[in-house]
């Protein structure tokens, strides 16, 4: 008698394994997969994309950041189709040729606002993969994802959605909204081991961190600020740890180097900001949750369980022997609460503030709503409405009041103002601000107005003063009138520096990170471009070009020519052509001597001659001298200086070098190299005399 | 080249047709366009799928249209338009690389006299015989009307026949079946029979079961434009994207295609848990 064969229990499947086993990648249904980081969601998404491509469909993938879009485009390049990131960095829109388009929610939001234009390719999209769908709860960016998903699903009747997340407290609600199957569970190949360490005070955290680190172990330490990351990394270096900071303030090259060093083991401890929470794939053996409290518009806020687990999910490098998570917190911060993993329910911020207005404006602009009833129907399709309430009629009324929409006998139409705001993804009042620019504005006036609508990074007093100094001789009716708010002056000074010295130079002058300056300049550029679209004028256009090309206004006039970008404009400047009027008078030989071809030289000169004069507004120096004292930022800088009377006039100290101011009749002159009629030293003397 | 089943009609005139085109390209075996439409929008992009190019003879139903005998063939004169001759139709079909072409016939409006009706039938037949004697730009179907003597046309060996004149009787499925069976009985086995202008799913079913090979209509879009789907869904003030969804639903219904789950009204994988 033979003994029976042992009975082997079938494998228990869950998460992505279960989804694959159920054929979710091939079935014509939407699916929400909630499973831990590292459990195979990305593999599942790839397989779903592969199957869609083989069916002749196109695929859209949404990811939280542009960097991730490029990374996935790179790693998915072997799929049977053209895979491409669709970001503003692309030299030309790739959507017509690409089969898999990877983009941020903001880009998809914009695409759906122009769905009729994109329809020929968009209608071929059969699958939307939306990674990190929990970001729909993000107060700042979640509304764009909600809006984009709502519009896309309305546009594409057959669209299947594959939504992926590791942290979602209300998956049934989310799945219901998506009309999707929900498959949860899933197993991490390397289970997380949590350790909560309570400290008596926040000041004790650095020492606790050092005790928590194991030499040689790859570790990510999550903090909330760039400065904290930099300081902590330096502190650990001094203590002998191979550490570095990783945050959005690093230039792409530096960041890539930091990541490469970490992957190669040259750096063992990376102090990172939440950027890495949804950033590039950079797993470690050990994750430390260092900052458990944030300070936002609503005051102190505890780190959410969702965010904690997103960060913790970085632990568990493939092939590693351990996946350790250490939570450092005071007793008030309850570091032990996170291990339980009770995720918060997701909800969308779309119903709040300007988000709903922007969504509805985009719906009218995109042709989704021509009546109040249609607008309400669209709003009811959002995740915000699914998880709460929103007041679409009131939002439509606000848009009508602001002049973004017009009512023609019950039919809603988007006005030129509304269209520009919608396409620029800007609030209506920001675009409407072009109407309150001073009459005959200068470039600096435009910068001052734009700066009032961008979020200014914090700057030290010395940096502020240095930046504002550069504005002393720059023509500006707003500055002369003394009506510019101090923050706007600082913002404009920063933008002015970026146009004259590039983002690098402005960062050096201000002490900011280069990407911070770049982000500020790009925000201002978006506003000024919208103004130019709504109300074109030479000053606004010149400011737009100046911001885009990072060139001073005079050199930027060269880039006003069609087909001349910043590279050519710079080359012309180096060839001794400082501006457009000069180019019109330049002999072709001068350009050919600077390596322009004869044909290009002829074309450029001809285009400059055809362009005609560039009328630049410039207030008279007298009015500047008279009223500039009213500007508080300039006064603040001048007050920092010390004035000492001498036999020849005055010695002014406190700046980089001592300067001499002398009197000639009623006029004061200074020996500083600023070359302006009213430098900070003369201002200081005037203050001294009064 | 032959097709089977429902063939949607596309024009360049309506935005909804442009929105529906990618779905027609994906789900339909071919699309039907009119030579008159092609002439009205020269250079406009054509759908990326095989095309059946109708002559545009349906314009003869215009109360002010006249049919002029020019000798070798007959031309259609519609006020405000250049005359449409079989030669024009031939050129348009060839330049559009039509998979299936139709000859220029002249359906008569209900108000036409018996003599005019007979004259148009005769001239339509002459056009068909002229076209069938040329080098064919593609598979060539001769356009005929109910009750017409098919002897001469069949002798000219058309690649198929196209029966018009049934659209006004779309709701009368018995008549549809009768007229199609009558024509089918005269045709050699295997010769394709196309029927113009039937879009209601029941009419399509009646035509196909009676022996039609293909039928065409723009009904999916026209229904959707009025906010209705054959599945019973009605949206009184449908927005463009909603009309598109209704049109896609109608298209798939007309094609007797499987409706994807995403479009199926019963598709709710979970019990809704809507908050207030």
UniProtKB/TrEMBL annotation, chain A:
Transmembrane segments: none
Residues of the Helicase C-terminal domain: 208-361
Residue ranges annotated for the Helicase ATP-binding domain, each copy included: 22-186
Pfam families documented for this protein: DEAD, Helicase_C
Start and end residues of each SWIM-type domain: 659-690
UniProt cross-references to Gene3D superfamilies, sorted A to Z: 5' to 3' exonuclease, C-terminal subdomain, P-loop containing nucleotide triphosphate hydrolases
PROSITE patterns, per database record: HELICASE_ATP_BIND_1, HELICASE_CTER, ZF_SWIM
Keyword vocabulary terms for this entry: ATP-binding, Helicase, Hydrolase, Metal-binding, Nucleotide-binding, Zinc, Zinc-finger
Statement: the UniProt record of this protein carries the keyword Zinc-finger: yes
Protein name, per record: DEAD/DEAH box helicase
Organism in which the protein naturally occurs: Deinococcus sedimenti
Classification lineage: Bacteria, Thermotogati, Deinococcota, Deinococci, Deinococcales
TrEMBL record, chain B:
UniProt xrefs under NCBIfam families: tgt_general (TIGR00449)
SUPFAM superfamilies attached to this UniProt entry: tRNA-guanine transglycosylase (SSF51713)
PANTHER family: QUEUINE TRNA-RIBOSYLTRANSFERASE
Keyword tRNA processing: yes
The protein's name in its UniProt record: tRNA-guanine(15) transglycosylase-like domain-containing protein
Organism encoding this protein: Deinococcus sedimenti
Keyword Signal: no
tRNA-guanine(15) transglycosylase-like domain boundaries: 50-240
UniProt entry keywords in alphabetical sequence: tRNA processing
InterPro entries listed in its UniProt record: ArchSynthase1/Queuine_TRR, TGT-like_sf, tRNA_ribo_trans-like
């Amino acid at each position: 008698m033979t003994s029976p064969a042992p009975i082997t229990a079938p494998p228990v499947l869950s998460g992505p394994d279960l989804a694959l086993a159920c054929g979710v990648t091939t079935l014509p249904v939407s699916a929400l997969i909630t499973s831990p980081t590292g459990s195979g969601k990305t593999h599942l998404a790839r397989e779903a994309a592969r199957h869609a491509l083989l069916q002749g469909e196109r695929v859209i993938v949404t990811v939280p950041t542009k960097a991730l879009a490029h990374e996935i485009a790179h790693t998915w390049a072997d799929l049977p189709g053209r895979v491409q990131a669709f970001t503003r960095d692309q030299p030309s829109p790739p959507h017509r040729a690409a089969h898999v388009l990877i983009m941020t929610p903001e880009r998809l939001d914009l695409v759906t606002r122009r769905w009729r234009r994109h329809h020929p390719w968009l209608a071929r999209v059969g699958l939307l993969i939306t990674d990190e769908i929990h970001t729909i709860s993000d107060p700042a960016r979640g509304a764009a994802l909600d809006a984009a998903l709502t519009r896309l699903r309305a546009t594409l009747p057959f669209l299947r959605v594959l939504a992926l997340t590791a942290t979602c407290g209300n998956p049934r609600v989310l799945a219901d909204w998506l009309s999707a199957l929900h498959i949860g569970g899933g197993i991490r190949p390397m289970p997380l081991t949590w350790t909560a360490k309570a400290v008596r005070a926040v000041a004790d955290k650095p020492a606790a961190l050092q005790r928590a680190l194991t030499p040689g172990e790859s570790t990510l330490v999550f903090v909330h600020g760039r400065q904290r990351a930099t300081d902590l990394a330096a502190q650990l270096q001094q203590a002998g740890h191979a550490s570095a900071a990783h945050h959005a303030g690093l230039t792409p090259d530096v960041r890539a180097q930091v990541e490469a060093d970490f992957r190669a083991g040259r750096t063992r401890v990376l102090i990172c900001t939440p950027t890495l929470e949804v950033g590039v794939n950079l797993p470690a053996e050990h994750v430390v949750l260092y900052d458990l409290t944030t300070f936002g518009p609503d005051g102190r806020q505890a780190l959410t369980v969702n965010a904690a687990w997103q960060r913790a999910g970085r632990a568990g490098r493939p092939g590693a022997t351990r996946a350790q998570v250490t939570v450092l917190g005071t007793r008030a911060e309850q570091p032990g609460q996170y291990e339980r993993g009770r995720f918060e329910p997701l909800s969308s911020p779309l119903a709040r503030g300007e988000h709903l207005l922007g969504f509805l404006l985009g719906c009218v602009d995109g042709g989704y709503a021509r009546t109040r009833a249609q607008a309400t129907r669209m709003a009811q399709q959002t995740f915000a409405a699914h998880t709460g309430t929103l007041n679409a009629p009131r939002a439509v009324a606000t848009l009508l009041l602001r002049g973004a929409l017009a009512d023609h006998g019950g039919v809603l139409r988007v006005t030129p103002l509304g269209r520009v705001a919608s396409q620029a993804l800007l609030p209506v009042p920001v675009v409407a601000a072009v109407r309150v620019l001073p009459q005959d504005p200068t470039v600096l006036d435009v910068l001052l107005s734009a700066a009032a609508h961008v979020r200014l990074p914090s700057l030290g007093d010395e940096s502020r003063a240095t930046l504002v100094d550069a504005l002393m001789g720059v023509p500006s009716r707003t500055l002369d009138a003394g009506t510019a708010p101090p923050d706007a002056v600082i913002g404009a000074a920063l933008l002015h520096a970026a146009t004259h010295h590039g983002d690098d130079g402005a960062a050096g002058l201000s002490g900011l990170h280069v990407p911070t300056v770049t982000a500020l300049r790009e925000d201002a550029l978006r506003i000024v471009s919208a103004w130019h679209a709504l109300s074109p004028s030479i000053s606004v256009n010149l400011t737009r070009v100046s911001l885009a090309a990072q060139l001073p206004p005079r050199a930027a006039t060269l880039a006003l020519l069609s087909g001349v970008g910043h590279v050519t404009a710079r080359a012309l400047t180096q060839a001794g052509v400082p501006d457009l009027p000069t180019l019109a008078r330049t002999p072709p030989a001068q350009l050919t001597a600077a390596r322009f071809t004869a044909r290009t030289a002829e074309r450029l000169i001809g285009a400059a001659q055809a362009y005609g004069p560039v009328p630049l507004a410039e207030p008279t120096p007298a009015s500047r001298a008279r009223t500039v004292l009213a500007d508080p930022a300039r006064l603040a800088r001048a007050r920092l200086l010390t004035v000492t009377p001498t036999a020849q006039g005055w010695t002014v100290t406190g700046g980089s070098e001592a300067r001499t101011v002398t009197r000639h009749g009623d006029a004061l002159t200074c020996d500083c190299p600023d070359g302006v009629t009213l430098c900070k030293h003369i201002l200081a003397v005037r203050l001294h005399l009064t | 080249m032959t097709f089977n089943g429902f063939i949607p009609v596309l024009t360049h005139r309506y935005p909804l047709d442009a929105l529906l085109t990618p779905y027609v390209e994906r789900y339909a075996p071919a699309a039907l366009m009119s030579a008159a439409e092609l002439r009205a929008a020269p250079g406009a992009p054509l759908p990326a799928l095989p095309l059946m190019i109708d002559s545009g003879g349906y314009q003869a139903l215009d109360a002010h249209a006249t049919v002029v005998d020019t000798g070798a063939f007959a031309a259609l004169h519609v006020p405000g338009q250049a005359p449409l001759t079989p030669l024009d139709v031939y050129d348009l079909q060839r330049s559009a690389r039509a998979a299936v072409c139709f000859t220029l016939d002249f359906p008569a409006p209900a108000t036409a006299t018996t003599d005019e009706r007979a004259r148009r039938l005769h001239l339509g037949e002459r056009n068909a015989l002229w076209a069938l004697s040329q080098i064919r730009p593609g598979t060539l179907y001769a356009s005929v009307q109910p009750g017409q003597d098919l002897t001469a046309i069949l002798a000219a060996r058309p690649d198929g026949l196209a029966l018009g004149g049934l659209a006004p009787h779309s709701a009368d499925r018995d008549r549809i079946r009768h007229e199609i069976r009558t024509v089918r009985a005269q045709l050699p086995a295997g010769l394709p029979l196309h029927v113009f202008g039937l879009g209601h799913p029941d009419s399509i079913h009646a035509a196909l079961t009676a022996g039609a090979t293909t039928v065409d209509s723009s009904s999916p879009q026209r229904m959707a434009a009025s906010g209705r789907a054959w599945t019973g869904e009605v949206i009184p003030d449908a927005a463009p994207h909603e009309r598109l969804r209704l049109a896609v639903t109608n298209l798939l219904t007309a094609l007797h295609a499987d409706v994807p789950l995403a479009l199926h009204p019963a598709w709710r994988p979970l019990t809704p848990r809507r908050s207030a």
